[in-house]
Amino acid sequence: MQRALSQSIRRTVQSRVGLAPSALRYSVCVPRQQFVRFNSTKPEAKETTESTEKVAEEAKEKSETESAEKTNAGEATEDPEFKELREKLEKKDKDLALMKNHYAKARADFRSLQETTKKEVQNAKDFALQKLAKDLLESIDNFNLALDHVKEDTLKANEEVKNLYEGVDMTRNVFEKTLQKHGIEKIEPLGEKFDPNLHEATFEIAQPDKEPGSVFFVQQTGYTLNNRVLRPAKVGVVKSEDN
After folding, report:
1. What is the CATH number of the domain that holds 196?
2. Is 11 domain-assigned?
3. 94: domain range?
């Protein structure tokens, strides 16, 4: 019954509108055709966007090229007076850098000269007495030589010789103390290991009871001036039995 009613209503609509069933079906399909046409326009929009971007990029490149050309043209047409001032300024900057470099070198050289002069002055003070001290050492050697030749028996038997001996001994002590005040010290090598920087070996003798290479005899006393060897001590060294 419902089916018959539906067909009757359809016939009535068709008779009033004057459309065939095929036309009614065609009108129903219109939205689908429109949807298809809408999708078909997407590639065209994409191509349009790419073309627009390409045109913008070309315009940017052209603008940059024109700007560079204008800059070069500006440099080419630079005012001669301004150019001269710019060159003078660049030259002044170079001269200033060169002067700073010379100043730094001169300052370093001056400091080095100060240090060198200071050391030389100190060395002159420390070793000014070197020549005089060497001459005085000969006098002390003579005092030592004279005192060593006096025998104890003679001192006991002769009072005058004893007084003379004591006077010479006191004079030698005064000389040694004066030298010590000016930085002159004795080298005491007896019993020590032989040191070629401080000692001068004059002979070698084997000594079974002493260590080989040690000093067992002092022929002449050595001295130093402010820790610098003024005169090495002349010594006898113990010889090794293997040699």
Report:
1. 2.30.22.10
2. no
3. 83-135
Q: What single string gives the DSSP state of each residue in 22-38?
A: HHHHHHHTHHHHHHHHH
Whether residue 206 contacts residue 172, with contact meaning beta carbons closer than 8 Å, is answered with no
Q: What is the dihedral of CA 164, 170, 171, 175, to 10 degrees?
A: 160
Q: Is residue 119 part of a domain?
A: yes
Question: What would the pLDDT profile of 53-78 be if each residue is shown by its tens digit?
Answer: 776 777 777 777 776 666 655 555 66
Residue 206 placed within a domain: yes
| Domain count for the chain | 2
- List, as one string, the DSSP characters of 86-116: HHHHHHHHHHHHHHHHHHHHHHHHHHHHHHH
Residue 189: other Cβ atoms inside 10 A? 24
- Tokens 């070198």 belong to 105
Is 67 inside any structural domain?
A: no
Residue tagged 């050492």 (tokens)? 137
pTM over 0.70, yes/no: no
Q: From residue 237, how far is each of 102, 112, 219, 224, 242 by CA, in Å?
A: 59, 45, 11, 21, 15
